[in-house]
């Protein structure tokens, strides 16, 4: 039986032995059922992480096909239609199904541990958010397995610009799957974000004031607010596209008085905060790793926190720099150019704080540190080209060219992905009790680092030489041959590096060196726990005395030991550790949304064969969802109380009651 199943027990009212007896949790089933019913934040984080890594491979495979198509002029590996599909699904997959869930994995697993909590505020809502995410991911990709003539995978561009998504241009259901999948992903993100906000505000350990929070927790909080505030914009836009396609409305149809440019405004009001939704979590990860391996506290902590909040706030004021070439007018263009230049200031402040942290530090060049330093350098390059785009005249030349492709990949791969990979290396020993080999870890870093730069740096020159984005082939006399060939070789190298990384991680999970707790001599509370952490996280909720809470504990051992003994007495007097029951109903509600979403996406505005079946499945999905939410709601706050022996093993307390 796994460790999580051994970490809890249900107290009983009937006769019990006079001596405490070691117990396991009788309601926890092994195997698949334990995962379908779990409400443990660590398990849900693991589910998010595995899903994100899987879709990272899927999105990477799609990117590889794109690069192979562009490797040589006039290539016919992919048709124009197939290229559009790969281009659409690569962008959508990497943003919504890879980077975002991998960040959510850290939010779920690490954030509650860093604030000294036993779980998130709403464990069942947390499980529901994952199952809805999975439903959205399935709907987005279901078109790959359906007839291309009538369905097919989405092919309207990951940005979905109107009127390209109208029935006139794409009569198939591919865009309907894209719309419904994104809507469900939005539901999942908002549910999870509200949960994280409540958890951080209300469930911090005593003494953990807001200005003692780890930077990663701050970035989780800011990102959660960004998600809650920005996703409604794209939700509105997606509903309007769905109505145009299904009911013949004219929100984006110019022939009926609609405004195609309205889509761009709604999309980018969401889309630019989305950039910071993707980059702020890795910034938080790096802000935890650099001080640990520099052996000194984070330089300028209040400024790092304030700059993160400024980035989140200003992210809503710069969306139209994506639209400088749409004819907004001089005043609007000047205003958004100025705001775009302004947002570079808090971003630059973070970089100077990281450099200040490294300055005169006792640097330990472990694998997490190398990925974190790679993040800083690659993100700086992406930031420099971003400042260029804030100047409207320069943007007019670079717009929709491969220069922009290079820019956002330096931000989202050189930034987001490098930061996430550093976090996986850093917290892997905590999550699984095994340490990644430094030799193989550093090898994977250098292959990924070299492959990434060889892939995307030549694209700056391709863009300045006039190569447009979103084109599936080119003639041999345009001067783009060599750079495209080099970029494709780089992409193959990058793919090899990611493959090595995955193989090393899988091997480490099964065969890696077992290590004790706190192998990095780290600063934050999660490292005070055994690895992997027990289901209840903390034997007693700690009292936080300093911003670098665990460093403080390690320098005040006797004081903290006495404090924990007193806290344990208080905990025992209050009935032990309260834990939530596992529940199948969040999974049921999520599967209801999956059934209904698939059926609604396949509906036609005109009667067609199978219409009654589709309507029936739509209703069935809604009924299943309502049943799941109803039974979930009447479960209330019931749970079980857990008592531990001196070694932290669960025991049955003869005096405990329900």
What does this structure look like?
- With 658 residues, this protein is mainly alpha-helical.
- The chain has one domain (40-580): Cytochrome C Oxidase, Chain A (Up-down Bundle), CATH 1.20.210.
- 63% of the residues lie in helices and 3% in strands.
- The chain has 19 helices and six strands.
- The protein has helices at 32-36, 41-69, 80-109, 111-114, 123-141, 174-202, 215-247, 260-294, 301-314, 330-358, 367-390, 392-398, 402-432, 438-464, 481-511, 549-555, 557-573, 585-601, 611-634, and strands at residues 21-22, 434-435, 513-514, 577-580, 639-644, 650-652.
- The chain has a four-stranded antiparallel sheet with strand order 1-6-5-4, with no helix packed on it. A two-stranded antiparallel sheet has the order 2-3.
- A hairpin with a 5-residue loop joins strand 5 (639-644) and strand 6.
- The protein is globular and about 75 Å long.
- The two termini are 25 Å apart.
- Mean pLDDT is 89; it is low at 1-28 and 653-658.
Task: Summarize the helices and strands and which ones pair or pack.
Blueprint: E1 21-22, H1 32-36, H2 41-69, H3 80-109, H4 111-114, H5 123-141, H6 174-202, H7 215-247, H8 260-294, H9 301-314, H10 330-358, H11 367-390, H12 392-398, H13 402-432, E2 434-435, H14 438-464, H15 481-511, E3 513-514, H16 549-555, H17 557-573, E4 577-580, H18 585-601, H19 611-634, E5 639-644, E6 650-652
Helix pairs in contact: 2-3, 2-5, 2-15, 3-6, 3-8, 3-13, 5-6, 5-18, 6-7, 6-18, 7-8, 7-9, 8-11, 8-13, 9-10, 10-11, 11-13, 11-14, 13-14, 14-15, 18-19
